[in-house]
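Re: Re: ligand-bound prediction request (bumping)

Still looking for help on this. To restate: I need the protein modeled with nicotinamide-adenine-dinucleotide bound, output as structure tokens. Inputs repeated here so nobody has to scroll up.
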Amino acid sequence: TTQFPSLGNGLPVLETNCYVAGVKVVSEKILEVKSPYDNRVVGTVVLANAAHAQQAIEAALQGGKKLSRYDRFSILDKARQLLVERKDEFAKIISAESGLAIREAIYETGRAHDVLMFAAMESLKDDGDIYSCDISPQGKARKIFTMREPLSLALCITPFNHPLNQVAHKIAPAIAVGTPVILKPSEKTPLTAIKFTELLYEAGLPPYMLSTLLGPTSEIAEPLVKDPRVEIVSFTGSVPVGKRIATTAGYKKVILELGGNDPVIILEDADLDTAVHLAAEGAYRNSGQRCTAVKRILVHEKIKDAFIEKFVEKSKSYLCGDPADPATVVGTVIDEASAIYLETVVNKAVEQGAKVVLGGKRIGALMQPTVITDVPRHADMVMQESFGPLAPILSFTDIDDAIALSNSTAYGLSSGIITNNMQNAIRFIKELKVGTVNINEVPGYRIESSPFGGIKDSGLGVKEGVIEAMKCFTFVKTFSMPW
Ligand code: NAD
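Reply:
Sorry for the wait, this slipped through. Here it is.
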């Protein structure tokens, strides 16, 4: 692995532990967490084993103080305040263990702030409905009321690519409804998740409400997925692991937020500067490691050459380097193996006739923002998810062709359409087989409380986002009364 001089960000090596219901796990097994940029050890985690997983289940089910709506609000709001105070520290931890540029890490703390804020607000709202029953010829003078009750235990499994926000998007809605959680964060980015766990305890979260476990998949993740006492598995990650969970989880609720292969589709009438800006932001932000990153740029053939010229210029401004440097825009990808994979898919596309017009090179886990043109429609790079700062450009002839091309992969997460023509925009909204269509925005555009999630291989169509996730972590009880 290549070593680099790093600015470093002044953080000491973080020595952390897994937690079973507020108690630090003690064991012989230690995970070392290394910076993908310079390979230095940035922290350690004392790992859990199968017995800890059992203890976590038992503690959650035994429960403790039942939280009122005001309690849940207060915990989430206090956590939000603590995160504001520790924003810089969290950003440094995210950047150190993931290699994401520090500016991206700071942005991510802002998103997690919003998740906590919206979850706190939502926890105060009543979630019931009322159905009058005297509304049909066979009606009665009664009313049916609904209320939501928390599930008894959630298992939340998160990926590496947003070490804080992914975790916040699972735990905060669960707290908002009072569902205890066992969190299994990514082994690649565990430090942020553990520090966030500690922050939540400090904010007043009763220990039984959260355990955070890492350890061998065969001892932690797999047995927990299968355990009948776990009522819901909420998973965000890759398609193969998500599909495996779908088959092993058994009789329980399963939420799957999986990979994506999102297009930005640039129509003939598009404002070119807007298109260039959004395509670059979509492809390169977070080192291209977002489920909703732009992974295909589809451009109308008449404007393709003009677009490519401006896009290459724009791409040069995405400086790639030391994640700790505030001037860096694109940090590393998650590890050297991922960068090697990206290099391989680029080379393979070139063998199939594509041209690299910018970047294409890798040093260690740093992958340059890479613009590739003339990419064949069947290239792996456009059919599979490549999780990195790659920008493959393909052209289309007309709207029918663009829609068919966009729908031609196994994924169906999100999309961005660049056009000023309302009729065309509406066609894409209606005809794309995806969870989200954003007009004149990147596919990843959302607010943290809006419904979010994909179809086809990207997910089962069950949405997340704070409000939808709160619904997932509850079941609806109805009761009726004479009226
Ligand atoms: P991954 O699937 O490799 O790992 C995700 C999590 O699953 C990790 O915590 C991992 O330890 C755990 N895991 C691995 N094997 C398991 C098993 N057999 N049973 C249970 N858990 C297991 O994903 P990753 O590489 O960390 O993350 C990148 C992927 O996540 C990309 O495909 C990306 O598109 C996807 N993602 C999707 C969304 C979304 O909302 N749709 C958001 C972010 C990332």
